[in-house]
Design a protein that fits this description.
alpha+beta, about 20% strand
Length: about 800
């Protein structure tokens, strides 16, 4: 019985989410007051309104839907429901609910609905749903429609014998006042259905009740998961939710959107703090109880826990002492000059600073926003998600919650799109306040060190002097102060780009007619897997240019400056360090890339005026963004196409799926994003192409509906791509430039053994020097799979039907 009730509630929740929180409706319930309350007091209470129903800080999650009936009939909802209804095989109850809601959409056309969940006070329902109509008469007209329909979806459970265990919906487990309300409700409902008073009197004293309650109050229809009173939702003298400053700020910002969501993070943080305090108090009581009555411990020849920990710490210290450091390392001989030299990239100074810098950038004490407001709306061929971050006074510039070191600078009109090539897949530009980022990293390092001393079991660790900042190491190497001397040389704009992956490197390489003598052997090569290109705006180009060689030496790249190769193109200078690193000054930006070819490509595109800012796709799909932003993201159509699971249709797609795909445009538009601040707080806005979302929904149902061989084939493709990613990671870390066998990848925890054994395919990896090949063949051809797959260090997945034999590099690529 309990499982049945749980299933019913889950179904109700899914209905609410999928059809934009249209409420699970219940049978009729009248709001009869408890017998202890005087009738005069009940009459004097004014009917609640949509805005006065809830008290502030009563619920942590609040959702509001405007124009419910119109939204149900809108093309935006129809587009999302269409693949669900035709491909997803939803349960009968879901289909019935959708059909009924569409049939009654005119009645609720102008209504508003709120859903409040996750109570912050005791004795509140877990979920409250309210639908507001234009008048009490309209609400009264709709009420019996709900009463008659909902039993078809969520029937009342079978009554339990009085002697058996009572379910949570049983009146015997409710407070006395709520029990009386429920009993009155049952009597009223049965009498309304035609039963006489005598029949009602003969009803069982403890009947089963539905796992929801419902009432009408003025122009509102209210639904909850348990019996409640209006006074519970808003106690006398309490502040209304609409009077809360954070809620009012978010709601006013999203007053015109169809769906509005508000999350009270301040209440969530307070609840977590209270729970943590309670746990600490319980731990203190337990410790005091153990101290007062210490348990008797028999003598044991095993060493004490403290001795074991001390031994482990001594072993760790000995291991650390065996690691080389700049002070004890023998000097590295300088490499020979010119092209015969090799880059001697030694370890970074004192090793630990790299780890400390990483933890400083992404660690530190998280700063919770007070609240988050969000809205969803459909405009044109895109679904738009807007999110407003309402921060505390001390972290107003923190645009990304829980990433305290990301501090936005002033609003900018991004200029980096005017230097990057038009043929890029991903473009990101942000404004950063470098001094505040630097201060935040210092605080994060200090916070980490303080926690380490606080929770250390060794007294000498708690008493030792805190280690110096890792920045001090580099400041000594550079002979300057980072905050005072280095950061002021840069502007606020920082940009990142990923170029399109060329199909054939030899065709993508730029032909050279006149090759300067200073150019190395990298002119006709290009990475198959593009590396990120970084552009940083500079204020003092000459000063930065003088510092770059010092920075490279400070990072521990011994002898790198002897390998520097310089070339000039129309006055623009490109500096490359073998196949490791390159940079150039393009316009007002310093461009950095691990691949010299990519740096040259940026310079060529800039000189030929073939930049991203001149690309029609970029201009058209970022036109909605304001000129001044804090951040900007553009994901090109080619990269979005890689997320199209049906880019290459096959006979394995069923008829319904083919029909669905035939009605979608094969072109997926770019995805765009902007970060702004209009005074209300950081505002994130994401535009998702309609086609992309529909492709994703369709692919989800296609995988669920696929046969076993089709699912195995999809898993085999994903497994080989994972193997490729693992090989790249191994080569850059554990492998010191070498690829790994399958066993080595598993031992390094880069892939799981389950992934390569569970899905009906045999995966093998062959390593030869600085190359590798991975294959996947069905264990039982035609039963566990049909197609065979192949991937190598280039990252191109290939495959075909080989009758169970392995695929090879000569097979066709698979999108």
């Amino acid at each position: 019985m309990q499982n049945s009730k749980t299933t019913q509630r889950v179904i109700g929740l899914l209905l609410a989410v999928v059809i934009f929180a249209v409420p699970v409706l219940a049978q009729q319930r009248r709001a009869a007051p408890p017998r202890r309350v005087a009738p005069a007091a009940a009459v004097s209470e004014p009917a609640p309104t949509f805005d006065s129903l809830l008290a502030a800080e009563s619920y942590k999650v609040y959702c509001e839907i405007r124009g419910v009936g119109g939204l149900i009939q809108s093309a935006a909802v129809d587009d999302l429901l269409d693949p669900v209804m035709k491909l997803g095989k939803p349960p009968k109850e879901f289909r019935t609910a959708v059909k009924w809601l569409k049939a009654h959409s005119n009645i609720i056309a102008g209504s508003r609905m709120l859903v409040a969940a996750w109570p912050s006070r005791p004795n509140l329902p877990m979920v409250v749903v309210a639908i507001e109509f234009s008048s009490p008469e309209e609400a009264k007209k709709f009420y019996p429609e709900l009463r008659d329909f909902l039993p078809q979806l969520l029937p009342t459970p079978t009554p339990m014998p009085a002697s058996s265990s009572m379910s949570p919906g049983n009146p015997s487990l409710m407070p006395a006042a709520e029990t009386e309300v429920v009993r009155t409700e049952l009597v009223t409902a049965r009498m309304a259905s035609g039963q006489t008073a005598e029949v009602v009197a003969q009803a069982q004293p403890t009947p089963s009740l539905p796992p929801y309650q419902m009432m009408q109050a003025g122009s509102l229809v209210l639904i909850s998961d348990k019996a409640f009173t209006l006074r519970n939702l808003r106690p006398r003298g309490s502040k209304a939710l609409q009077e809360d400053n954070n809620f009012l700020q978010a709601r006013s910002r999203f007053a015109s959107e169809s769906i509005f969501l508000y999350i009270d993070l301040k209440a969530i943080e307070r609840e977590e703090q209270d729970q943590q305090k309670k746990r600490e108090q319980e731990e203190e009581k337990r410790a005091e109880a153990e101290k007062a009555n210490p348990p008797k411990v028999e003598a044991s020849p095993e060493p004490a826990t403290e001795e074991l920990m001390a031994e482990q710490l001594r072993a760790q210290q000995a291991e650390v002492q065996r690691l080389p450091s700049p002070e004890v390392m023998e000097p590295t001989p300088d490499p020979p000059p010119a092209n015969n030299a090799t880059l001697a990239a030694g370890p970074a100074p004192e090793g630990a600073p790299f780890i400390s810098l990483y933890s400083a950038l992404f660690g530190g004490e998280s700063k919770w926003p007070e609240a988050i407001g969000a809205a969803l709306v459909a405009e044109g061929d895109a679904y738009i998600v807007r999110t407003l971050i309402i921060n505390k006074a001390e972290n107003k510039g923190n645009a990304i919650p829980f990433l305290p070191q990301f501090v936005s600078g002033p609003a900018i009109a991004p200029e980096s799109a005017g230097i990057f090539p038009a043929d890029i897949d991903l473009f990101v530009a942000i404004s950063l306040d470098y001094p505040q980022v630097y201060e935040g990293m210092l605080k994060a390092i200090a916070h980490t060190n303080e926690l380490s001393r606080k929770y250390s079991s060794r007294q000498e660790v708690r008493d030792e002097v805190p280690p110096e900042s890792p920045f001090a190491v580099y400041e000594r190497k550079l002979g300057l102060k980072i905050k005072e001397d280095l950061l002021p040389l840069f502007g606020n704009e920082l940009a990142l780009a990923l170029m399109k992956k060329p199909a054939k490197p030899e065709l993508a390489a730029k032909p050279v007619e006149e090759k300067p003598a200073s150019v190395g052997p990298y002119e006709n090569t290009v990475s198959v897997n593009p590396n990120p290109i970084i552009a940083i705006s500079v204020k003092d180009r000459e000063a930065v240019q003088r510092l770059i060689p010092k920075i490279i030496e400070a990072l521990g790249l011994k002898g790198a400056n002897l390998l520097a190769q310089t070339e000039k193109r129309d006055g623009t200078e490109i500096v490359s360090y073998a196949d490791f690193f390159s940079y150039a000054f393009v316009g007002n930006f310093l461009v950095l890339s691990p691949d010299p070819w990519e740096t040259r490509h940026v310079v060529d595109a800039y000189l030929n005026h073939q930049t991203l800012s001149s690309d029609s796709h970029f201009r058209n799909f970022t036109r909605w963004q304001p000129r001044q932003v804090l951040g900007q993201v553009y994901v090109g159509p080619d990269l979005m196409e890689t997320y199209n699971p049906f880019g290459r249709r096959s006979a394995s797609v069923n008829v319904k799926m083919n029909d669905f795909l035939s009605r979608l445009s094969p072109l997926i538009e770019p995805t765009t994003y902007a970060l702004t601040n209009d005074g209300s707080g950081p505002l994130h806005e994401l535009h998702i192409p309609r086609n992309l979302l529909l492709w994703m929904i369709g692919s989800t149902f296609a995988v669920a509906d696929a046969s076993v061989p089709q699912r195995n084939e999809a898993m085999a493709q994903g497994s080989l791509r994972t193997v490729h990613s693992a090989e790249v990671t191994f080569q850059a870390t554990h492998g010191n430039g070498q690829y790994a066998t399958l066993d080595e990848l598993i031992a390094a925890n880069l892939i799981s053994k389950e992934m390569i054994e569970k899905y009906g395919y045999k995966i093998e990896v062959t390593v030869s020097g600085k190359k590798f090949e991975a294959t996947a063949v069905p264990i039982e051809y035609g039963v566990t799979g049909t197609l065979s797959y192949f991937i190598d260090e280039n990252g191109n997945l290939r495959g075909g039907d080989h009758g169970g034999a392995p695929a090879s590099a000569s097979d066709q690529p698979i999108n």
